[in-house]
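User: Need the bound-state model for nickel (II) ion:
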Amino acid sequence: MAVLPILTLGDPLLRQRSREVPPEELRAPETQAFIDDLIETMAHARGAGLAAPQVGSAVRVCAICVKDNPRYPYKPNWPLTVLVNPVLTPLSDETFVNNEGCLSVPNLRGEVKRFTELRVEALDRQGNSLAFEVRGLTAGTFQHECDHLDGKLFVDRVFDTTSLSTWAEFERHGAAGFAERARALVARWGS
Ligand code: NI
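Assistant: Bound-state model below.
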């Protein structure tokens, strides 16, 4: 396993639509080794998620894992989930305002609107079909990671650029207010 370099804003690979992974390619040892590296890189960088294009591979694969994450202390824990060829379908029109950062956009955070409830359909890393629903802050994490597979970054969705901040200024001015909103979401959805 290896920690891979993470591409940052301006790299054209972050801006392209990644391609689907066919089942036989998913089973190949090289692909499985790549998924191991993606997970290890996510853990090393303390990301809540990481998408394949962020480490230079334009395939529709991402990983999500939240375990007492110090970058996002308000995020509820979520077990390691690898999504291959994911499709997200909102379950209602309801949205919430999320404050996001991204390992590919160093030292910047901002507010984006995310659907509150989603159906997730994907393959797992063994090629089995997954179908489940996610809600609240966790739904925000899923949308952020799947956006990467379409070449979209959270900065594209920032609807009020005055919400942009460095991580240090977020801690100083935004964290307390956002943590309160995040608690309300977690209380309502349990996630
Ligand atoms: Ni990201």
